[in-house]
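Table S2 (continued). Query chain:
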Amino acid sequence: MAWVGIDLDGTLAHYDEWKGPEHIGEPIAPMVEYVKQLLAAGIKVKIFTARVCTERWIADEDEVNKIISAIRNWCKKHLGERLDVTAEKDFNMVFCVDDRAVSVEKNTGEFLVSPPTISSVKWHSDPKNPENPENDT
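Corresponding output:
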C-alpha cells in the first residue's frame, strides 16, 4: 500500500535540542494540518524517523519499543490516530516530508532546489554541533 513518510523532529514536532528518546516536542501546526488532510483523504501516513533506526533496534529492542510507543501516543494526541513508525523507506513510499531533505528530479540528478553548501551544513556527527545526541548530558 502506498504511503507518505513524515519526519518527526523539526518537521511534525518542534525540535530545539536532544532531550532523550521519548521526549517529543510540541506539534508544528501547519504540518499537523497537512497530515490530517492526508489522513482524511485516505492516504496512509507513516512517521519516518531515525529515532527507530536499525542501529537502535540492534542495541536495545525494548528501548525502541518505548520510543515507538511514545511517538504513536503523541500522534494519537495531536493527529487523532496512532500512526506506524519506521526508519526505512521502501518502494511503496510515494514521498517523504523532511526538514533535511533536498529534492532531485527522478533519473536526472538535477536538484529541484538549491542544495546547501557543504560549509553551511551542521554535520550531525560534529562534537561541536549542539544537535549531536552524543552531547546529551
